[in-house]
# Entry
Amino acid sequence: MRTVYVNGQFVPEGEAKVSVFDRGFLFADGVYEVTSVLGGKLIDFAGHAARLRRSLGELEMRMPVEEDELLDIHRELVRINEIDEGMVYLQVTRGAAADRDFAYPGEEVEPTLVLFTQSKPGLADSPAARAGIKVISIPDARWGRRDIKTVQLLYPSMGKMMAKAAGADDAWMVEDGAVTEGTSNNAYIVKDGTIVTRQLGTEILHGITRAAVLRFAREAQMKVEERAFTIEEAQAADEAFITSASTFVLPVVEIDGTAIGAGAPGPVAKRLREIYLEESRKAGI
Ligand code: PLP
# Structure
């Protein structure tokens, strides 16, 4: 049985408990982070910790523990659960107030901190990375502060179900005619050697993998444009791909039934995936 972390304690998953009055459960009043593990090491931990601090700050919540303790908890869970490749999920909610009330409770209510691991052997060498994935486009019906990584994941879940029903693997969301991002990842196209991805703003999550991949791309002298693009532009691109902590760099080979480029993973996505995995393994902690 897996060991999870709940509010200061490492406990078997079957014994872990959170109150029915927890605001994460009642109001989706919480934020989360996902950090990948490769070779038993945490990838980009500092980036995820920094984004957690920012998400909490935007919601007037405090960090439940300091960053070095957070790192210790991550490492301890990876060790106890013997994770070689996989993910560590972390959730912080505003905790459980005495009654259900929309207004935020006072400082006396402690936030809830939960962490758990998911083992994913073969994460880095996935069949999806070799074959590429198919996406469909759907309207972006999420709330306006997508830069905060909240646990409101119902629309992304609906999007994944829409993709599944259409025989695809994922969905890219479209707002005012332009692609925002994937349901749980950032979206990119490549045209004539230039990598194009949506600019940062409140419309998308500021992906930690996105930041690393764009840095590696620029270091490798690849051209990067941060701007909005349409589904039509994506369908006419040479390549498309997504990035996230759990997929790294994953080629997209079909959008709304149209093959992208040769309909197979392209050289830019393949190269970026290699660089990202190599550099991340080296920098893992
Ligand atoms: N965009 C959305 C909506 C996400 O949910 C995620 C990850 O969960 C990402 C982008 C990618 O972010 P990261 O690279 O930090 O995992």
Helices lie at 23-27, 45-58, 67-80, 127-131, 154-165, 208-219, 231-235, 267-283. The longest helix spans residues 267-283. The mean pLDDT is 97.
